[in-house]
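Feature request disguised as a bug: please show the residue count (68) next to LolToxI in the output. Example input:
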Amino acid sequence: MNSKFIVLCFIIIAIVAISASPSSLPEDHSISKRDTCRYLFGNCTVDKCCKYLYCSTYKTCLWHWHSG
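Example output, currently without the count:
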């Protein structure tokens, strides 16, 4: 039982070490439309709010309510 537990611990440690190491694949840092808008309760002093949101008087993105 002890040897199985030790092997299991080594497998878990190996998986954690591999997943924590930086990947050799290049990261995509291109700016998409989703990255340039502010979400609900986001600060909209610089960037505009996302679709269906509006910038309130307190410079916070809020849900755009439609009545009727």
